[in-house]
Amino acid sequence: MIGGAKTRTVEWMLAALMFGWGAAVLYPGEMLGNATNRYLILLMPEDAWGVIAAAIGVFRMSFLYVNGAWRRSPIMRLIGCFLGTLWWTALFALYMRAINDGAQVYPSLVFYPTFILFEYFSCFRCAQDACAMGAFGRTPKENA
Asked: How far is CA 78 from the centre of its chain?
């Protein structure tokens, strides 16, 4: 097991959080109707945010599931972590913009940066796993 289960545990958690975020937003009613989320709604409808988050979460979980069975899966995991980094960074940036415009501060102020930090960590570990497996076209001995 290259990279150890600890890395994938963090990836599973982040993928589940992203899927859960998307599923919650897709739940009937206005989930993003407050002032803190107004910039999200200005960019695209609430349902679009939910579908994108849930889809990325499912994508990530599917490649975590097949991890190890397919040589290139660390690259797919890396893509998933990179998408997660972009996702949480976008949410945090839009959240901070709303706060700067006077919106109420919520606990997300702490959550999003934490998610971003662990997504970066997961990207690094996925890249290590991919190199160790030779997924970039090199054998593991060439990586040393």
From this structure: 10
